[in-house]
Design a protein that fits this description.
Length: 398
DNA sequence: TCTGGGGTCCTACATCGT
DNA sequence: TCTGACGATGTAGGACCC
């Protein structure tokens, strides 16, 4: 298979070109700051000097993405806003406008599908493309088709796009990083030793901070050093599946197909509080947030046409430790009240003496609503529809 | 001064039925 | 009847991704 990996560059304010800009943080706080300064003026008309700066940012939140100018200061995705403010206090802060992002994401993917129909979704700004059977795809090693895609994306969205071309998804993804922004990189099998092996292990999609640290402790820092290890040695240290996968990855082997269709496994909603909340002292506030989260998950399920039967909660304490509790029902549901009730039971199985930073609700084991309707028997297990006498009401769960 | 939100996948372990 | 092996399933936690 021949694969492309394409990702778009999403910053769209021409007046900010070349400046350090970070996008992220709590959306509401930044929106408020912008409105205070600008009224309802559209972002693209705001003069550069009027944008809020990182040093003025107050509160929780992390950076979603940063311009290359901001990255020069060591600022990057997933970094806390407070830490970033120390590194680059004058960086401009922009809110994440998810509706806009989704709109451009759709246009980006449509533009690609018109040229190459086998596309795998990898989030809002990334896709894999199998171009094996696209007419003319092999011309100039794939470069001609990549250029065509870039042109088409630019025409339809105004966005630039970086593309990696390789024999499989693993290498295509790495290749796309070589020449950003708006670049094309081609990596062939024969380039493995010169182009891939010198890279840090962390560049492999699937090796995160934990695995990277463990590898470093074993004195393995580059992909080439990883490739030099016996597969058995990797399995001894990382387990059967991970060890074998690491060995394959280091040798540039990846047989995963481009998957054009997939079903969601779970849907969830979670929120981090402005301040840490206490289960007893902030009972009313927590209860209201909890109910709202359940309603939102139910709305999501309804809107997308799914039902689920594993209902779970997640919470994060003030020390950042997280716990989850799941409960599986005998039947599928998308009903907010049922979700609230079962999630409430799950919540009761968790110690609530410590302050809470985050609360989340999840519904898993999903099925298309129409498939579930065909399956569903009319009988509902006792105890799930009516409360038993003496059992706590939903308002008493905290 | 810490560390978002929405996901997927993997592993380990407990439990249960055969 | 007891015991062990084994697969299926549920649960909890964690790594990782965008």
């Amino acid at each position: 298979m021949d694969a492309f990996f394409a990702s778009i560059e999403l910053l769209r304010y021409p007046q900010l070109k070349g400046l350090p800009v970070v996008i992220g943080g709590g959306r509401r706080r930044i929106d408020e700051a912008l409105r205070e300064a600008q009224g309802e003026r559209a972002l693209r008309f705001i003069p550069v000097d009027d944008f809020p700066r990182l040093k003025d940012y107050v509160g929780r939140g992390v950076i979603t993405t940063a311009t290359y100018a901001a990255r020069q200061f060591g600022v990057g995705s997933a970094m806390g806003m407070m830490k970033a403010a120390k590194l680059c206090p004058d960086a401009i802060v922009l809110p994440v406008d998810f509706d806009e992002v989704r709109k451009y994401s759709r246009a980006f993917k449509e533009a690609i599908r018109e040229v190459a129909p086998l596309v795998e979704d990898r989030g809002v700004d990334e896709v894999y493309i199998d171009f094996t059977d696209v007419p003319g795809g092999q011309r100039d090693g794939g470069r001609a088709l990549a250029r065509l895609l870039q042109r088409s994306i630019l025409e339809k969205t105004g966005l630039t796009c970086s593309i990696g071309v390789a024999p499989n998804k693993l290498i295509a993804k790495m290749a796309s990083e070589f020449n950003k922004p708006n670049g094309i990189s081609i990596v062939q099998e024969a380039d493995l030793q010169t182009m891939i092996w010198p890279l840090k292990c962390r560049k492999i999609n699937g090796i995160g901070p934990k695995s990277d640290a463990k590898l470093a402790a074993l004195n393995i820092h580059t992909i080439g050093e990883m490739a030099a290890q016996e597969i058995g040695w990797l399995i001894d240290h990382f387990g059967q599946a991970t060890g074998a996968w690491m060995h394959d990855a280091a040798w540039g082997r990846d047989s995963r197909p481009v998957v054009t269709q997939s079903e969601p496994v779970s849907m969830s909603r979670e929120t981090t509080f402005e301040r840490d909340l206490h289960a007893v002292r902030d009972k009313a506030e927590l209860g209201a947030v909890f109910t709202r989260l359940c309603e939102k998950v139910a709305e999501d399920l309804e809107r997308k046409g799914y039902v689920g039967k594993t209902i779970g909660i997640k919470l994060r304490y003030d020390n950042f430790q997280s716990v989850t509790r799941d409960q599986t029902l005998a039947h599928y549901t998308a009903d907010a009240k049922t979700i609230r009730q079962i999630a409430g039971l799950a919540l009761k199985r968790v110690p609530l003496t410590q302050r809470l930073r985050l609360l989340g609700v999840r519904v898993g084991t999903l099925l298309k609503a129409e498939d579930a309707a065909a399956l569903q028997t009319r009988s509902v297990p006792a105890g799930l529809t009516a409360e038993e006498p003496g059992s706590p009401s939903m308002d008493q769960l905290f």
